UniProtKB/TrEMBL annotation:
Record SUPFAM superfamilies: Glutathione synthetase ATP-binding domain-like
InterPro entries: Asp-Met_ligase, ATP-grasp
Keywords, sorted A to Z: ATP-binding, Nucleotide-binding
Domain ATP-grasp: 157-352
A GO MF label: metal ion binding
Name the UniProt record assigns to this protein: ATP-grasp domain-containing protein
PANTHER family documented for this protein: CULTURE SPECIFIC PROTEIN, PUTATIVE (AFU_ORTHOLOGUE AFUA_2G00130)-RELATED
UniProt KW Transferase keyword: no
Source domain of life: Bacteria
């Protein structure tokens, strides 16, 4: 898509450049330990996640969202207090209001399936992690079994050279198999559920005690688990890639951009840094390997769209591909907004809450989302009772500014794990 920016025409890269026209994209996951996938399933997070694509879908894609995005005027409020654009109402497919944060587990999967059958059209649906239900098979654009296979970490060695993967010490058919195992595993190590979301199925085990706790934590998990080498790294990078739909095989699949991952101590994804005008020789080397050696293999399987590879780089410059996501991720929208100069500074993404009236939220938070006071780019917003929940980028010129910026937000009543981490950098 072309747009006029400061009297110059600029190519705006969006999801519409990678999917067929009239694609209906649902950025969500099945809940629980079913459908060949583990998702602990915080419905509040799921609601915010589904709305992230409203800022990067482009002209030709419809976005499926949870009703909370529209309820209480959340999206309207965000439109009125933002300097970035969101897709039009005609591109939004809301799920029924009855699918809310109180609907959990298998019941949630069932009512979502029924809603998708009713509200999406045959052959147009893309779901970040497909619900593998026979009733939905004809609705999906891409064979859901292919997407599920690609998103399963145990299959990484089918398209990534062994030299670029951490050593795998052992594999277990399920959590009980790991729990009962008498194999003496090396320490440190990493325990992974083979197919899971947002780092929920990962435990970094630096001690024998941590490994034993991981066995307890994952004892009830039904899918494959494995234990692999722990990599001490200097960089943890998420490379966002794109493979355009319906292009000749020689059309270059490519890296759209990248971010530095922010994770919790147990490996859970919390957010990401994108530095303005960053250039790093090693990162460029990794990018070249991904574009020339790995992405063409994926394109040959007739998969298309956007996704990411998580890559660790150690102190000697050796890099390891530790995970793949053949779906939009928590950083996709931010990478596209940055690439399109809609975010013009360095940034770190985070999820937060604020309790108060609408007037207080506008004054204390949304006033920082546009205009001269701007330090935020909020891309998704929901509300329940007097609590606002949002996903945003905190903007900065130099990293040393971040503790003060984080303090400014928390002093206004914003609560966020990432902001608390940033305050400690002082």
């Amino acid at each position: 898509m072309l747009c006029l920016d400061d009297d110059k025409w600029q190519i705006m890269l969006t999801l519409s450049d990678y999917f067929p026209k009239n694609t209906e994209y649902f950025y969500s996951y099945p809940v629980g330990d079913t459908f060949y996938f583990y998702n602990a399933g915080d419905p509040v997070d799921d609601e915010l996640i589904s709305a992230r694509l409203l800022v990067c879908a482009g002209e030709d894609i419809k976005v499926v969202v949870y009703n909370s995005i529209l309820k209480d005027g959340s999206l309207k409020l965000l439109r009125e207090n933002s300097d970035i654009s969101f897709v039009g109402e005609d591109q939004i497919i809301p799920l029924p209001e009855t699918i809310n944060e109180d609907v959990l587990g298998n019941e949630r999967n069932e009512v979502i399936t029924e809603a998708l059958l009713e509200r999406t059209s045959s052959g147009n649906l893309i779901m970040a992690q497909p619900i593998l239900d026979e009733r939905l098979i004809n609705d999906y654009q891409i064979d859901p079994k292919l997407s599920i296979w690609l998103n399963d970490k145990k299959n990484l060695d089918q398209y990534v050279p062994a030299s670029l993967l951490p050593k795998r010490y052992a594999e277990f058919v399920n959590g009980k198999d790991l729990f009962d195992s008498k194999i003496k595993l090396p320490i440190p190590c990493v325990v992974k559920i083979s197919a899971s979301s947002s780092g929920e199925g990962i435990r970094l085990c630096l001690t024998r005690e941590a490994l034993e706790q991981a066995k307890v934590d994952f004892k009830e998990r039904t899918g494959t688990l494995f234990v692999e080498e722990h990599i001490s790294y200097t960089h943890n990078i998420g490379f966002q890639f794109g493979i355009p739909f319906n292009k000749p095989r020689f059309f270059p699949s490519h890296i759209i951009g990248y971010n530095h991952q922010v994770t919790a101590a147990d490996g859970e994804f919390l957010g990401g840094f994108i530095y303005a005008k960053e250039w790093d020789a090693k990162i460029e080397e990794v990018k070249t390997v991904l574009e020339t050696e790995i992405l063409p293999k994926i394109q040959e399987k007739d998969w298309y769209g956007v996704g990411s590879f998580d890559v660790l780089i150690d102190a000697e410059g050796k890099f390891y591909i530790i995970d793949s996501n053949f779906r939009t991720t928590g950083m996709t929208a931010y990478v596209l907004l940055t690439k399109n100069n809609q975010i013009g500074k360095s940034m770190i993404s985070f999820t937060a809450t604020f309790k108060g009236t609408e007037k207080e939220f506008i004054k204390r938070v949304l006033s920082l989302n546009h205009g001269k006071k701007k330090i935020l780019t909020i891309i998704s917003l929901t509300k329940k009772d007097d609590e606002y929940r949002f996903n945003a980028a905190l903007l900065f010129d130099q990293r040393k500014e971040l503790p003060a910026l984080a303090l400014k937000l928390t002093d206004q009543g914003v609560k966020s794990v990432v902001l608390e981490m940033l305050k400690k950098e002082a």
